[in-house]
Amino acid sequence: MENTTNRAGRPPYGILSVLMIGAFIAFLNNTLLNIALPSIMTDLEVDTATVQWLTTGYMLINGIMIPATAFLIEKYSVRRLFLIAMGLFTAGTIIAGAAGIFPVLLAARMLQASGSAIMMPLLMNVMLVSFPIEKRGTAMGVFGLILMFAPAIGPTLSGWIIEHYDWPMLFHFVTPIAVVILLLGFILLKDKKEKVDIHLDVVSLVLSSLGFGGLLYGFSSAGSKGWSSPYVYLTIIIGVISLTAFVLRQSKLERPMLNFSVYRYPMFTLSSVISMTITMAMFSGMLLIPIYVQTIRGFSPMEAGLMMLPGALLNAFMSPVTGRLFDKFGGRILAVTGLFIMTITTYMLSILTVETSYAYLAVVHAVRMLGMAMVMMPVQTNGLNQLPTRLYPHGTAMNNTLQNVSGAIGTALLVTVMSTRTEVYAARLTEEALQSSAQPAAELQQQIMMKAMLEGINDAFLVSAVISIAALVLAFFMKRAKQAEELPDKVHAGKKARTS
User: In the predicted model, what is the mean pLDDT of residues 399-420?
Assistant: First the structure.
């Protein structure tokens, strides 16, 4: 990567532009699909548990592929990795648009995910080596604007397409853009990389796949299958054992696939913990607000998307601002302020009623996303800033992997809280209603279930607020990171000691 960019010279804006557009279209395609799941269920005649694999499978492939990206970035050039990643994504998009049966569609999504998994760490690594620390916040802010804009417009655009066309149009819409980006990459990316004599450790790849894949599958399935299901607890146990073996093996390898020595740098360690905590809390809004708006309040998917649009746009357009503020003031003041806003607004979403106004939801969600914009990118950038250049690929791969895992854990936790508390409230309300009511039993039972689900959602938001408080406390320990000097890995240090 060193011959791709020159940190003392002008950043490679051409390379960055191509990479950012590629990452944007990959992100956009992922958010486009969520609203289309009911239509896919009807057309391809599959149930909820089956169609959910389009999302769960995507997450699994990301969890399996991302740990290997540190090795890929060290071994291959930006051009080669980008063309492979964009080629896989484009092929998956074309196949998905033509899929007439669910297995083909699922295989196409796996292809898309394998390309997308390479794209994000590659872009992050190029940005880290292209900009000095004092300008990195602004650069990451622009990067955040582009990538946050995709999920901002995704649900609304998807709602409009689904209302006017069939679901394959979501993929047909993306295909020509993906082909153009692939051609641009082929023409514009000219970097070369000297041959690096490193080889992928197959045992590490297997352990990593079983470890991260097992955790992601187990926690992702907990919401629908329940914690007592052997599919859930067995896969989580396999994941924990495999991941432990993976970490132990990496500490013994001279060239580890994923270098855990990044956690010898305190600011990176702190940023990882805060980022995981924030991601868990973040999923409460993405998961619970659409359930509340559509199931309890009866709004259409288009109305739900429009309600969340201001917050998503605010999050996107605040990224460059927070990037500049990060360069000027550091990450702690931004993280503390943003997490305070997140905590207050998350609590405000834990007191919803059946009469909460559309405007209240839109405003509170928008302010919550503002707080999130002040936290996520500054915290991660501050942590990565402390790493020596050699560890950038491993730091970005670690961040992206843990974000997937914490997202799965957060989703499972919040769904479990919502489901169990809904059952508790339903039993309590049913017992109270048995004292007598003039309403028909079926109508009364429906009202009870809606009220119970509302209280379950409120309790899940309350748990999310507590998670935000934990992140807020950790944020007070942040310090402005300076790039550390190279610390020798334990393996290398042992070899030096023996030779001397």
Answer: 80
